[in-house]
């Protein structure tokens, strides 16, 4: 039989354990950790002899103290050390969170991202929070402040656009979608439901030869519609659920739940890699899915 003293020791130990876990999830993992997630694959239809290293950064969510301009610069320095042939940015540069001490202006986070370097360049798409936090774009359409900030530092943004690149004389395509959740519903916007601005068919129609295609799509939910013509889809958005136990997350911002929450998924011979991202949204918490840079070696 447990004694009164033993009971209080047990309760105290439990509370201390919960507080320690909370401190880790709130302060250490989102602020201090940075992992490298590595994948190696040769997708169906990939050009023989084409060796390509892609470095991907997703879901930066710039804000103080969680993702300062200085921290973004340090992450970019680490990304450069990975010696990718090309670097991609998968959207959500805007904060997406109210629990901040200070917002990081788009001119600051874009200046930090401008330190990224790769022989075949840096290529970007937008995410839902980049649209949601721009009231002017919500009301009138057009470019968001994120589009303009990246353009100002020379980083091209793909909004339903495909571009052909080459390495060692062998071509491949980047096809980048505009965001699938871009426009919020609401009376003030004159919309009764959320609208996406993505155009998968129109983007793929710009591909004019049989070189492999890498699709950049912020949300992975489009993957069931992605044709076999696409060698690899790269996405972010989910943050791996931000809290992850034994390979699953209790909450994933996807209509498919854990199906596309994180990592390399193969369905019917088609490949998607979903980054766990770098920042946080809604709440500054991560547990079991630390911030990460993704490195993909193709071929």
TrEMBL record:
InterPro entries, sorted: Calcineurin-like_PHP, Metallo-depent_PP-like, Metallophosphoesterase_sf, TAT_signal
SUPFAM superfamilies referenced in this protein's UniProt entry, alphabetically: Metallo-dependent phosphatases
Single Gene Ontology MF annotation: metal ion binding
UniProt record, GO biological process: lipid A biosynthetic process
Domain Calcineurin-like phosphoesterase positions: 52-240
GO cellular component: membrane
Keywords from the named record: Hydrolase, Metal-binding
Tree of life domain: Bacteria
Keyword Hydrolase belongs to the record: yes
Metal-binding keyword on record: yes
PANTHER family the UniProt entry points to: PHOSPHODIESTERASE YAEI, TRANSMEMBRANE PROTEIN WITH METALLOPHOSPHOESTERASE DOMAIN-RELATED
Protein name per its UniProtKB record: Metallophosphoesterase
Organism: Rhizobium phaseoli
Highest classification ranks of the organism: Bacteria, Pseudomonadati, Pseudomonadota, Alphaproteobacteria, Hyphomicrobiales
């Amino acid at each position: 039989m447990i004694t009164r003293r033993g009971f209080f020791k047990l309760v105290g130990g439990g509370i201390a354990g919960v507080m320690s876990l909370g401190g880790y999830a709130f302060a250490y993992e989102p602020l201090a950790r940075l992992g490298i997630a590595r994948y190696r694959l040769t997708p169906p239809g990939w050009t023989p002899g084409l060796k390509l290293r892609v470095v991907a950064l997703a879901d930066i969510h710039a804000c103080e103290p969680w993702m300062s301009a200085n921290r973004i610069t340090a992450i970019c320095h680490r990304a450069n050390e990975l010696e990718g042939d090309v670097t991609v940015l998968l959207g959500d540069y805007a904060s997406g969170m109210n629990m901040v001490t200070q917002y990081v202006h788009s001119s600051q986070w874009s200046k930090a991202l401008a330190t990224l370097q790769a022989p075949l360049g840096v290529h970007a798409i937008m995410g839902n929070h980049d649209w949601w936090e721009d009231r002017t774009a919500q009301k009138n359409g057009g470019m968001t402040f994120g589009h303009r900030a990246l353009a100002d530092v020379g980083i091209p943004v793909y909004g339903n656009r495909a571009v052909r690149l080459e390495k060692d004389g062998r071509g491949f395509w980047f096809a980048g979608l505009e965001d699938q959740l871009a426009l919020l519903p609401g009376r003030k916007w004159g919309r009764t439901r959320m609208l996406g601005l993505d155009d998968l068919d129109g983007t793929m129609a710009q591909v004019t030869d049989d070189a492999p295609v890498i699709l950049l799509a912020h949300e992975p939910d489009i993957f069931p519609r992605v044709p076999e013509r696409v060698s690899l889809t790269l996405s972010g958005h989910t943050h791996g659920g931000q809290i992850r136990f034994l390979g699953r997350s209790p909450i994933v911002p996807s209509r498919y739940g854990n199906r596309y929450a994180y990592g390399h998924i193969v369905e019917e011979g088609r490949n998607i890699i979903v980054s766990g991202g770098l920042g946080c949204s809604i709440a500054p918490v991560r547990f079991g899915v630390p911030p990460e840079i993704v490195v993909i070696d193709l071929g």
